[in-house]
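Key idea: predict the complex, not the pieces.
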Amino acid sequence: MICGKTIDEFLSEIMRFHGFKAPGIVLGGIMVDYCQELIGAGVEADAIVESIHCLPDAVQLFTPCTVGNGWLKVLDWDKYALSLYNRKTVLGFRIWVDTEKTKSYPDLYNWYMRLVPKKELSSERVINAIFTAERNVLSYQAIQITQHSDRHKKGETGICSSCGEAYSLKQGTSCLSCQGHCYYIKNPN
Amino acid sequence: MICGKTIDEFLSEIMRFHGFKAPGIVLGGIMVDYCQELIGAGVEADAIVESIHCLPDAVQLFTPCTVGNGWLKVLDWDKYALSLYNRKTVLGFRIWVDTEKTKSYPDLYNWYMRLVPKKELSSERVINAIFTAERNVLSYQAIQITQHSDRHKKGETGICSSCGEAYSLKQGTSCLSCQGHCYYIKNPN
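Result:
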């Protein structure tokens, strides 16, 4: 059982949500499972992940925390680590893939350190190595959160003086898009 | 039907994933449904949302795009707008809640502009107004994406000289956490 699911359920939920059976989410699910056990049942936990790759989906699938409900924060650090913490005490656990430990599982090590191109190392082989290794490649530490534990508050809403759309007044007199961050142009066709 | 689901299925998927029946995701689902119709069936679409609140979950629930698979980008602009675009041509549609149009639906307008405290305006009333309004409060534009359409590439992996964990070498000689962004301390207890 992983995160309260059989292996088949676990893998089919990954397929359904993430679109394919990525080794990173399989490993992420095992990390979530371990971290949930450390923090204990019945604790309302918020989450922080330290990579935008795969890990956010493992947390969103196997905990109540999502990006859209604000209980998951995503840091773009490219580190394969996550923390779950009690949202009241801000005490919790950080868990990470321990590179030294992965060396005992060559397929896992080569995938994790990106030493072998994808074409030469199938997802199936990596996933087999992950299931063989399970928690043996993980390390953890009890932590206290010092940043990012605040819930994002919605600010006062106004109408942008430039585009006329609603936005948060804390951004200034016009919205961030009109301040030069716009990511699109009108379709020229 | 919304996003190919009955209203009951639609609402129960929201409950299961997001944890509660947030009006923002109900509205977001209607936006996704409309945008998918505009872009057309069979188009492999990537997504951009312009708020961290609720909208990311609507896209993750009702399209194949997630944060962890990289097909969804989340901008923290506090604007209730989203874009779906063909990932090859980068042509697509942006859809947003049009404040002027919401004025015909007072409960929706008051909720959207945050004019009435949550205690005085129940989620049920707002959701009823959203279902009454449906697409009548939305506007859209055909767009071409000029930013954020690139997939995030994983960089070369190395070992941080400070903490010994794996990280992306493009961050420098130590990882971002060791460069002063760390969000935790060891549990002092």
